[in-house]
Amino acid sequence: MEKHDRKPLAVVTGGAGGIGAATARRLHAEGWRVAILDRDIEPARAVAAEVDGLAIEVDLADPASIAAAAARVESEGAVQGLVACAAHLENPHPPHRQDLAEFDSIVATNLRGTFLTLTELGRSMLREKAGAIVTIGSITAFNSSPLVAYSPTKAAILSMTRNFAVAWGRYGIRVNCVCPGPTRTPAAEASYARGERDPEKMRRQTALGRLVRPEEVADAIVWLLSDRASAITGAIVPVDAGVLVSQLWNLYDGVPSPEPSA
After folding, report:
1. Helix (H) or strand (E) holding 53
2. Catalytic residue among 150, 171, 192, 252
3. 10 Å Cβ neighbour count for 3?
4. The model's pTM
5. Is-catalytic flag, 171?
6. What is the chain's pLDDT, residue by residue, as a tens digit (262 residues)?
7. Which residues neighbour 179 within 8 Å (Cβ) at sequence distance 6 or greater?
């Protein structure tokens, strides 16, 4: 990445795959420079090579690692866009089967890690009094689910997003949250293959009758970072193919199929 490049600089945590990688590609197509922060550095480097960007290794459970990554990014210039996408995922299970070490790791990565991502990488935004941030929540934040640790961290990210939106609004910084629904990321596909989730059951819960593609989530993220969303802050945007709106329909024979043509 050339330091003299005048394109705006965006950072994507968790950019090595799935929604993060799709976002990095969309940002590149929209004319951004992209720094990809991820624990899996080799896949991050591969995506960075695609987008003529920068790959930086980071562990969101380690505050020192986040601070070091932020310092490396700042050597490239002021951050104008930030996507806090990295997360520790979880498989469904009942609460009484929760492993405590896993619970602590999920909280450290998803909740504290997102907070530190915003505060460390937002420093240059505060100095410049300009920028846009998108956090990544989940539709599991809105209701009950068998994701015992993951779901509460995502609910907390919704609250955190609103807090930052007001605290930093007069600094010229917008903060919004995108909440994906069932998205066919490589991690999700691997989970389907292991039998941990059933994509057909998920599909039946959607108003649109299909699952979400990573690129569709990326489109919402990149739009919220852009000047086209210049008056939007504190918004919580589901990208879920209509899971949230169709929930009660499952008490009434499910989402209706199209009626046959006359």
Report:
1. none
2. 150
3. 9
4. 0.94
5. no
6. 555 457 999 999 999 999 999 999 999 999 999 999 999 999 999 999 999 999 999 999 999 999 999 999 999 999 999 999 999 999 999 999 999 999 999 999 999 999 999 999 999 999 999 999 999 999 999 999 999 999 999 999 999 999 999 999 999 999 999 999 999 998 888 888 898 889 999 999 999 999 999 999 999 999 999 999 999 999 999 999 999 999 999 889 889 989 887 5
7. 136, 137, 138, 139, 141, 142, 154, 158, 236, 237, 238, 239, 240
What are the distances in angstroms from CA 48 to CA 10, 28, 41, 88, 239? 12, 10, 10, 21, 25
CATH number of 9-251: 3.40.50.720
Positive or negative, the CA dihedral 38, 230, 26, 3 is negative
Q: What is the CA 76 to chain-centroid distance, rounded?
A: 23
- Fill in the amino acid letter for 201: K
